[in-house]
Amino acid sequence: MATDALMGEQVPVRIAPSILSADFASLGDEVRAMEHAGADWIHLDVMDGHFVPNMTFGPPVIESIRKVTDLYFDAHLMIAPVDPYLETFAAAGCDGITIHAEAGAHLDRSLQRIRDLGKRAGVSLNPATPPEAVKWVLDRVDLILVMSVNPGFGGQTFIPSTLEKIHRLAQMIEDRPIDIEVDGGVNSENSPALVAAGATVLVAGSAAFQNGPAAYRSNVTALRSVD
Ligand code: DX5
Ligand code: ZN
């Protein structure tokens, strides 16, 4: 779909605010506010200080905010090893569990495990990881998360080569029902090009949570708009 064809329209893309940019002192209220603002999913960035150089939160926090919303919980696990923790994240209330292709030796097995737990299976690709890394697991995944920054921190600058990677992934997956999600430096300036390239889910931390709760609705609407 060309960008021009989308001008001025609200495109059918899902917006997944990352609570990494929320006020952690009021996390339940922040999630509720995002739901009321029209967010489609809640993106949960789990970091271990080993796979990525930062630490965030784990299953107890997810379990706690699970009580305040029915929105889809989109867990992005930046942890290695990941296999020993899949069951715990599933039990905490995640709807989709995304693991990094670079995080373990047996991607195919890990993806099968996520589906066996009754969750949508996702695989994430770091900026330097080629799209071909998912070629032989395409029938095992429900979502491919394309990192448009190096994982670990919010507020980084979008890496332009991501667009070409999304385009190639869109060609590779053909008509399979696989979401292409983009994460890192996404804002209302680059979102039209991302959607035109084939993205179906946009993660946004800074751009979604900027200027506080009163601005959340306009932030989410701006990310969804293509004008
Ligand atoms: C980075 C995380 C992202 C990040 C996005 O490791 O996976 O989800 O929070 O934040 P922004 O939108 O601020 O780049
Ligand atoms: Zn993320």
Short description:
With 227 residues, the protein is an alpha/beta fold.
Give a verbal description of the structure.
The protein is an alpha/beta fold. The chain has one domain: Aldolase class I (TIM Barrel). It contains 9 helices and 10 strands. The strands form 2 sheets. It has an 8-stranded parallel beta sheet with strand order 2-9-8-7-6-5-4-3. It has a two-stranded antiparallel sheet with strand order 1-10. Helix 7 links the parallel strand 8 and strand 9. The longest helix is centred in the C-terminal third of the chain and has 12 residues. The radius of gyration is 16 Å and the shape is globular. The N terminus is likely disordered.
Mean pLDDT comes to 95
CATH homologous superfamily label: Aldolase class I
Number of helices: 9
**Overall body shape:** globular
CATH topology: TIM Barrel
Number-wise, the strands total 10
Please write out the topology.
Layout (H helix, E strand, L loop, with lengths): L2 H4 L2 E2 L3 E4 L9 H10 L4 E7 L11 H8 L5 E7 L7 H7 L3 E5 L6 H10 L3 E6 L17 E5 L14 H12 L5 E5 L7 H7 L3 E4 L1 H4 L6 H9 E2 L1
Parallel strand pairs: 2-9, 3-4, 4-5, 5-6, 6-7, 7-8, 8-9
Antiparallel strand pairs: 1-10
Helix pairs in contact: 3-4
The site of D-xylitol-5-phosphate (DX5) has 21 residues, from strand 3, strand 9 and helix 8.
Keywords:
two-stranded antiparallel ribbon; binds D-xylitol-5-phosphate; TIM Barrel; eight-stranded parallel sheet; 9 helices; alpha/beta; binds zinc ion; 227 residues
